[in-house]
Amino acid sequence: MLIEKTKKPFNLSFSYSFSRILHELNSTLVISTYQAEKVIFLSAQSSNQLIQLPRTFTSPMGLAYDRNKLAIATKTNIITLSSIEKQVLLKKQNKYDAYFIPTASFYTGYSHLHDIAFGKDKLFAVNTNFSIVGTVNIDFNFTPYWKPNFIKNINGGDQCHLNGLAMENGEPGYVTAFSTTDEPKGWKNTDFKQGVLINVKTNKIVQKNLNIPHSPRFYKNKIYFLESAKSKLNEYNPMTGETTTVIELNGFARGMDIIEDIAFIGISKIRPSSSIFNNLKYENNDYYAGVVAVNLQTKKIVGKIEYLNDVNEIYDIKILPNIKKANIIGLNDEQFDAISMPNSGFWID
C-alpha cells in the first residue's frame, strides 16, 4: 500500500487507495477533533493527492450535513453553515466547488452535545449532560424531544452518557449510551461494559453489554455502530435482532459516515492522563489517530490516513457527497468578508 505524507501543520500520511476512493466518490471528508479544536476538510485533488483545510472551532464534536447545510456542535453553541457553489459565487475567482460560510449560531450552553443531525424539519442533538435527544431553535437553549425510559428526571447529571444518534427517515431512530444508570455521572462507576443500543421509537434496549458504544448509523436497513473499547464495527439487523461484527479495528473507534458501501471511521488515541479509560486494553500501546475506509461488502480496510502530529482524538466524521473540493470559512473576524445570499454569494472588499 503506497503511502504519501503531507506537509505540516497537521502532518499526516495516507494510502493512495484512500485518496483514490475519495476522488472516485467525488466527495469531501469532514473530521471534527475537539482535542485539537479543529474541523478539518479533506479533499482528493487526484487519485494520489490529498489536501486538508483545518479551521478553528471551540471543542467541536458532532457534525450534521444535509444538502447545502453543515452544522457543528461546539462547547456551548451549534454553528450552522451554508454552502455557496462556485457557479453562483460573485466577485472572486476560486478553485473550490463549494464554500461553507457561517450563517447562524444557536447558544445551547454547556450541554456537552455529542451527535447532531438534520431531520425533516428540525435540527436534532444528543444532549449528553441532560441524557436526552433534543431539538434546537431560536426560542430556547434546548427543547427535549426524547429520553430513555430509565432516566426519571431531566436534571443535567449526565447519568448514562447518551452520545450517539442514528437517523431513520428523517427522525431519530437509534441511540447509544454507556450505561442505563440514573444517578449523576453513574456511568463512570461502571466497568464500561454496560453500554446499550436503544430503539428511539419503541424506547426499548435492543443490544446490551456493549463496551463503550458510539456513532450508530442507519444504512440499507441496518444499524452500524462502533464498539469503541473493543475496536469493533458492528452491524445490527432490526429484523432479526442479531448483531454481528463486521471488522475489528486498531485503536479507539469513534465517528463514522457511510457512502456507497464504504464506511469512513475515525480512530483516536487515548489520553495517557485519562482516569476513565485507563484500563482499556490498548491504552498504553502506540496506536494512531486517523481515519480508515472499510468496505462493508468485503469487510476489509481499503484505505487509511494517519495523523503524525497535532491530532490525537477524533469525534465525528461526515461525507459531503458530490463536492470534490470544499472550503470552509472559520469564525475569526478576518474571514467574515464572505456573505451568503439566496442563490448567490459575495466577497466584501
General description of the model:
The protein is mostly beta strands and 349 residues long. It has one helix and 29 strands. Strands 1-2-25-24-23-22 form a six-stranded antiparallel β-sheet, with helices on one face. A hairpin with a 4-residue loop joins strand 24 (289-295) and strand 25 (300-307). The longest helix is centred in the N-terminal third of the chain and has 10 residues, at 16-25. The mean pLDDT is 89.
Write a brief caption for the model.
The chain is mainly beta and 349 residues long. Helix content is 3%, strand content 50%.
Radius of gyration: 19 Å
Derived structural class: mainly beta
The main sheet comes to:
6 strands, antiparallel
Which series of helices and strands comes N to C? EEHEEEEEEEEEEEEEEEEEEEEEEEEEEE
Determine the mean pLDDT: 89
